[in-house]
Design goal:
Layout: E1 2-8, E2 13-19, E3 25-29, H1 36-45, E4 49-54, H2 66-73, E5 76-80, E6 90-92, E7 98-100, E8 103-109, E9 118-124, E10 127-133, H3 151-162, E11 170-173, E12 183-184, H4 185-191, H5 201-209, H6 219-226
Parallel strand pairs: 3-4, 4-5, 5-6, 10-11
Antiparallel strand pairs: 1-2, 2-3, 7-8, 8-9, 9-10, 11-12
Helix pairs in contact: 3-5
């Protein structure tokens, strides 16, 4: 499998490229609309064809590139089925692996950050990777105070499902704000200050309730746009246009 980790600095989002070496087909996990040109250059340099985009959840801090990729190169849009988005081609459900060439991705429903959040596990030739979205971050986790978030559900998702994976599973989060790139399940169990170190459910819910985080500055634009698989809002304020700039036409190949 061909694997690349790509960083978008405006929203501190990691996009992950997975590709089958035999077929040349690729997928992008959590692609960002203002990083399309960068991702296109990577695909072209590796002589890959984008077949699929895959989102972990409906994002509140950036616009997904799923729709624009589909319009440009005909790639399919995959996202959690329970959101019921009419723009989605492949509805993701736990227990139903996603296959792309020789790549198998196993979806894990991990609610709490949002109620329909998914993480994705991919095992390939001895490499066991978990794309944890916002459910589990390096030394942290996603917030639980919007989009039907639920601290109890997140605690159960992480401690009951993700921490049940082998300790050597590599954890690739959707974001990091300190330029960290990868962790492991064992590391997060032992040192994550929110969910690791034997934290109890009561301790975690109390901690999350006391964060007093500011209202997300992009949520009122990002969530409606992402419910349409990445439709850029026409009324986007000037200072936020870098999150969703209009891309010039560019062809894959």
């Amino acid at each position: 499998m061909i694997f690349r980790q790509l960083f978008e600095p405006v929203s501190s989002t990691y996009t992950y490229l997975l590709a089958c070496e035999t077929t040349g087909q690729a997928m992008l996990i959590d692609p960002v609309v203002n990083a399309i040109d960068r991702d296109l250059q990577v695909l072209q340099s590796l002589r890959l064809t984008l077949a699929l985009t895959l989102d972990t959840h409906i994002h509140a801090d950036h616009i997904t590139a799923a729709l624009q990729w589909k319009q440009r190169v005909g790639s399919q849009i995959a996202a959690p089925a329970m959101d019921g988005l009419p723009c989605v081609d492949v509805g993701i459900e736990e227990g139903t692996p996603l296959q792309l060439g020789g790549i198998t991705v196993n979806p894990l429903h991990t609610p709490g950050h949002t109620d329909s959040h998914f993480a994705y596990r991919c095992i390939d030739h001895g490499s066991d990777r978990l794309f944890s979205g916002d459910a589990l971050l390096i030394d942290g986790c996603g917030r639980t105070d919007f989009q039907n978030g639920d601290a109890t559900a997140l605690y159960q998702s992480v401690t009951g499902k993700l921490f049940a994976l082998p300790d050597d599973v590599l954890v690739y989060p959707a974001h990091d704000y300190e330029q960290r790139r990868v962790s492991t399940i064992g590391q997060e169990k032992s040192r994550n200050p929110r969910l690791g170190q034997g934290r109890t459910l009561e301790e975690f819910t109390t901690l999350m309730a006391g964060l007093d985080l500011p209202y997300p500055k992009f949520i009122d634009h990002a969530v409606p746009g992402n419910r349409h698989c990445g439709l850029c809002p026409e009324d986007l304020p000037e200072q936020m246009r870098e999150y969703c700039e209009r891309m010039t036409q560019s062809h894959q190949g």
